[in-house]
Design goal:
By secondary structure, the protein is mostly helical. It has a single domain, classed as Orthogonal Bundle (Arc Repressor Mutant, subunit A). Strands 1-2 form a two-stranded antiparallel sheet.
């Protein structure tokens, strides 16, 4: 399993903003410091700015700031927000995609259960825990 770059970049952005809470950060600064494409980062910032996780202010003195205390940003919730597709195998999305499903294959259930455990583990931590 590999998380998407979008999720990775979201976590990086939140960590950077949490470490720099006393200043407004720019997309250019974040892109440079985090070694992320500016275009990709704009998409991440746009999505996170629709939540309380970051505050985006326009204008001369604008920029990006963490919107919540780092102890209130749950990593599991960020994961669920940013991962577009957590279906680890094709049959999690389409049950008729595999001929073995007719014979009662238990792989889908095992993978689904494992994914829930992974998400539950991520939900045990906040941004503050990883700073």
């Amino acid at each position: 399993m590999q998380l998407s770059k979008f999720t990775d970049y979201s976590f990086r952005t939140l960590i950077y903003l949490a470490k720099n809470v006393h200043k407004n950060c720019t997309v250019d600064e974040l892109a440079k410091e985090l070694d992320i494409s500016k275009d990709h980062l704009k998409k991440v910032v746009h999505k996170l700015a629709k939540t309380d996780y970051i505050i985006s202010t326009k204008g001369r003195n604008g920029g990006l700031k963490l919107g919540l205390d780092s102890g209130k940003i749950n990593l599991g919730e960020v994961l669920k927000l940013t991962e577009e597709n957590l279906n680890l195998v094709e049959c999690m999305n389409e049950s008729d995609s595999c001929p073995l499903m007719k014979d009662g294959c238990k792989l889908k259930g095992l993978i689904s259960k494992s994914l829930k455990v992974f998400i539950k583990e991520m939900e045990q931590y906040t941004l503050e825990d990883i700073l």
